[in-house]
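Help needed: design a sequence for this.
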């Protein structure tokens, strides 16, 4: 995933994506302070929510994180190759048929979500005459992944189904942790407690990022934050986390237009006065969602400039009338995402959540990773 599709020199790149690894580690520590010592893992699925699984996981490992979660076996294979062997790597979706071998070879711990997954992992353990680690995920309300209540009863009634397996983690996933008052949270907590009591030997894990901000009864032995590490607000309007990404797009050209002139596809914006329109090289192919058309803002050296017209595939247009023409030199950088307008604000403008903003970020950017030794360089 890290291999550049083409190698972009910083000088010519149309957009720069700066990822602050120190901020990710600071966020991980802040989350860790809310749970018991040693009880904070990190979810780095989907290429660490688009930010780069290898640099992110390595930085978190250096910060002390030892438990990592990915969604798929392939992601785990990649992660294992960049992390020391003392890191535990859990695969949330478990293995599809045929994936067990890779899981074992690469020292990944599958999260078993169905009796079928349990059976296949056990059968590998038996063939190898080994005891294999596994996690069990129970469905307590998501109806997405995990063993059903009936499956749990089967496992309890037929404990031989788990012979040759060491259940090192029991987990479930919250439906609406960001809405503290949603009664589904307590319902899931109750169900999880009962299930957990049946398999008391491994550790227990329920909280995602937002779950860490619920009562400590939700914390158990291991939290699984993803989004919050990357600066996503854990509750609407509440965000103690540091912003992690800065996205800057370059000015390609600008023009003066007369009042009445339409801009962009279908002329969804029309000038009401003479205006200076700047075209910036970030578009929906880069993850700047089209639903932000006529809604979002960019910034130029601290001054807000409204995005006007439709977001195109490779460009956006902004009303730069407040920016002196002399400052608008080709290649000048506009802030698309920064600490003043972060992923949470853009998500609100685009009518989605910050998870989608992050994971949509494309691969046409020059990516830069900040960590302490390099901070002095900027
Ligand atoms: C994605 C995921 C997480 C992380 O959730 P965030 O809301 O990003 O913190 C935790 N657990 C499971 C099972 C997940 O799929």
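Sure. Designed sequence:
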């Amino acid at each position: 995933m890290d291999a550049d599709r083409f190698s972009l020199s910083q000088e010519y790149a149309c957009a720069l994506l700066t990822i602050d690894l120190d901020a990710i580690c600071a966020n991980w520590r802040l989350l860790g302070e809310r749970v018991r010592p040693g009880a904070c893992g990190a979810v780095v699925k989907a290429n660490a929510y688009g930010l780069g699984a290898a640099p992110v996981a390595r930085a978190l490992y250096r910060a002390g994180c030892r438990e990592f979660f990915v969604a798929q076996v392939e992601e785990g294979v990649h992660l294992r190759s960049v992390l020391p062997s003392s890191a535990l790597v859990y695969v949330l979706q478990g293995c599809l048929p045929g994936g067990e071998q890779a899981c074992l070879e690469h020292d990944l711990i599958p999260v078993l979500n169905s009796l079928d997954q349990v059976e296949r992992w056990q059968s590998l353990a038996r063939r190898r005459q080994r005891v294999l680690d596994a996690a069990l995920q129970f469905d307590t309300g998501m109806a997405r992944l995990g063993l059903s209540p009936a499956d749990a009863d089967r496992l309890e009634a037929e404990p031989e189904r788990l012979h040759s397996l060491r259940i090192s983690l029991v987990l479930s996933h919250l439906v609406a942790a960001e809405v503290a008052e949603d009664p589904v949270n307590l319902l899931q907590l109750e169900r999880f407690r009962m299930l957990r009591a049946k398999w008391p030997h491994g550790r227990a894990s329920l909280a995602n990022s937002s779950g860490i901000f619920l009562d400590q009864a939700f914390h158990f032995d291991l939290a699984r934050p993803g989004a919050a590490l990357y600066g996503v607000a854990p509750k609407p309007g509440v965000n103690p986390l540091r912003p992690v990404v800065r996205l800057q797009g370059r000015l390609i050209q600008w023009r003066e237009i007369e009042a009445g002139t339409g801009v962009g596809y279908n002329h969804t914006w029309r000038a009401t006065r003479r205006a200076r329109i700047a075209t910036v090289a970030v578009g929906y192919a880069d993850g700047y969602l089209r639903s932000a058309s006529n809604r979002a803002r960019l910034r130029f050296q601290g001054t807000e400039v409204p995005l006007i017209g439709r977001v195109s595939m490779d460009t956006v247009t902004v009303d730069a009338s407040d920016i002196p023409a002399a400052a608008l030199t080709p290649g000048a950088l506009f802030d698309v995402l920064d600490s003043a307008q972060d992923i949470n604000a853009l998500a609100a403008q685009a009518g989605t959540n910050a998870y989608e903003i992050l994971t949509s970020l494309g691969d046409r950017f020059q990516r830069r990773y900040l960590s302490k030794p390099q901070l002095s360089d900027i």
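The radius of gyration is 24 Å.
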